Each structure stands twice: as structure tokens, then as C-alpha cells.
């Protein structure tokens, strides 16, 4: 009878301590971190430039007639060709008549033409009521790796392809969103940092006027705050390779805001630090210049994230269909409640003493969104998450597809990927994942605008009625 071979031991048995010590290398000091960071920085630049043109700048690819007619403008290819032949002043694209390629700038011009001349029942331009401000959308969760940046990037690109003008604000000092959009940020003065500093400086100046009237000593403005007073939102906004996406980028030094903001708050306790970004967007004209403002937040509930959440009209909370991410997201909501309820309690106590109306944080809508979904393994847990979060949960679950991974290798969004690099089915299926996510997001967006418009009209009617009654009396 043949002897059965011995079952091998697990690899963590019978390890030799001396051999293990030989693998340790030299003791690591702080200088070694600098060396590792330098190597990583060079590697990051090399990898990022995979999606760049030879001149070191990102370029947005062109879109074929097939893509234009299927995804961007609701017209048949034959009709598009007839319109182009009839209107030689319109962008004609490149290539043969049956296979033309258009830049996104050209697509936007074609969309404008069809909006003016096309069938009135078709949506050539996305819904956007006149006279109402942009919608501010924060994508947040304090657990890392849940797909915040990719979700924010694809929502921005989807909205841009749909015809909206978008501002993306990168609040994460890791700067991943900035890399995706090809931003160049030399230091913290090209991030939101000077905008937050300016808001504090303006609050100090207002306080100093009160102190001067009372004969008290002023709060000094240091060099940073004095310099920030000269920075406006337009100074830090940069164009991207997308014609209708602008960016306020981020880089590592932005993280210092998390230390500086509480120091400023200690210097002036009545400074509403959570409103700094809101004020910057408002005073800088962003709410009028853009349709959608997307805020990509760091994976922490720090001061930058608090500013983003306070500024937001719509909050999107990505999470994976796992217990840990569900648990973490629940704790995130708990911290949101604790943080903003605490701010409300503190502010309203002071407001009541001063005889002022109370303040309250409100959002048009909050939705959790399952990302990287694998239906074969995660459906049961996703159903449980859906049941517990209820109406705060998006209906659509965002599948993970090969297209996402391959686009990410070139530091690009899937909408930047050329479908000719995939088979048509892979591209169509991968794009549908984010198209459906955007469709559900767009419903939230236009529904919020419509509700605002109805409320504004009702308020206007009430004021007219009150004026009429006053005149009659």
C-alpha cells in the first residue's frame, strides 16, 4: 500500500529568525520616507502621463458619428448627415462622410443648432431652469476605497456630455481627481485654501470694526490672511481638457487647512467656518457661471468635508456592498447628525439670545449609492443595505466592469476611453453602468431644480396676493 504524501505545513511554520532578520534591511529613519516619496512621485508622474499627449497635456478624444447619435444628440445618423450637408457653416467633423469624428466643442455647437432648429419635443439641451443657481453636489463618505473620486469624476463627465457646464472642486489633498482632469497645482495657493483663508480674513475685518467702535484691540491679520484677501475664486479655477468642465485642484499642502481652520476658529469664535466654501462659491459667481458644482471630498469628516457638506444641495454617498462599508456608512451618517446638530444647537442658542431667526442645515436630497457591485456574490447583502437605508438609497447598483479597470490604468474616466480599444459589447455594457448612475442622479438634479422653481413661483404669487390685498385695504 502506497504511503500517502505528508500534507505540507502552512507557510508560517518553521520560519528561521536569522534568515528573517537578513530580509529586514537597514533600520528605517525619516530620510527613507523622503526617498520613497521621491520615487513614488516620479512613478506617479510617469503613470499619470499615460493618458497625456506628447506635449504633457491631456486631450479629450473625438467622438464618432455613432457615439454622437447614440449617446449625445437624439438624432438619426442619416438626419445628422443631411443637416451637415445643408448647413456647411456647422462643424463638419473629420473623416469620410459615413465615419466622421467630432470634438466635444463641435458636439456642443451641433446640440445648440438642433435645440434651435430641431423637433421641439426632443431634449437637445438638458433641463435647466433660468434664474436659479447651480446645484452643488458633494460626493462623500469617510471610508476610503468606496469609489468617491471615480463616482464624482464620472458624474462630472456625464453631465458635461449631457451639455451642462460643470465645476469640479477637489478637496482631497491626495489630488486624485486633479490627476484625472489633468490639473496642474503648484501649491496650496492654487487650491481652495486661500478661499477659506479669505473668508476668515473677512470675518476678522468685520469683527475688528466692532472692536474699534468699542475701543478694543483688533485681531491681527498675518501675511497669509492679508495675501488671501486678494485671491478670488477665478484665480484658482483652471480649465481642463473638457471644454465645459473647470477645476479647482488639490495637492498635498491642502491638508494643512485641516490644522489651520481650527486655529482660526480659536482666534474668532463667531466665525462660521462651515460656511467658508459656500461663501466662496457664491461671492465668486460660481453659482451663476455653472450648472453643476461637484465637490470631491477626502475620506474623513474633517473641516474640508464639513465645508463641502454644508455647501451641498445634493449629497451622494458611495459604498460597496460589504458589511464593513455598510457599517462605516452608518457611522458616517451618525457623525453627520452629531456634527451638524451640534453646530445648529450652538449657533441657535446664540441667535435666540440676539433675537435672530434660527439656522438649520438642509439638503435637497441624500442618496447612498452601491459601487463596484458583483451581482453573483453581493445581491443578498445589497438587498439588506437597501432595506435599512430605504429611501436614502439609489435604486441602481453600479456594477464593476472591465472597462472601468482599463480606463483607470491610463488615469482616465470611462467616457474618455476610445471604444475602438474594446469590443463594442464591452464598451456599451461598461458605459451603460455609468449612464444608468447618471440617469438616476439627473433625476435628483432636475427634480431639485423643478421643486425650487415651484416654490419660487408660489412665493412670488403669495407676495403678489399680499401686495394686492394691501393696496385694496
Please give a handful of descriptors for the protein shown.
52% helix; 473 residues; plasmid; two-stranded antiparallel ribbon; 7-stranded mixed sheet; globular; alpha/beta
Care to give the gist of this entry?
The chain has 473 residues and is of the alpha/beta class. The protein contains 18 helices and nine strands.
Give the SSE layout.
Layout: H1 17-22, H2 30-48, E1 63-64, H3 65-72, H4 77-86, E2 101-102, H5 104-117, E3 135-139, H6 148-162, E4 166-170, H7 176-180, H8 193-214, H9 223-228, H10 233-236, E5 238-239, E6 245-248, H11 257-267, H12 276-283, H13 286-289, E7 292-296, H14 303-311, E8 314-320, H15 323-354, E9 365-371, H16 375-389, H17 402-409, H18 424-472
Parallel strand pairs: 3-7, 3-8, 4-6, 4-7, 8-9
Antiparallel strand pairs: 1-2, 5-6
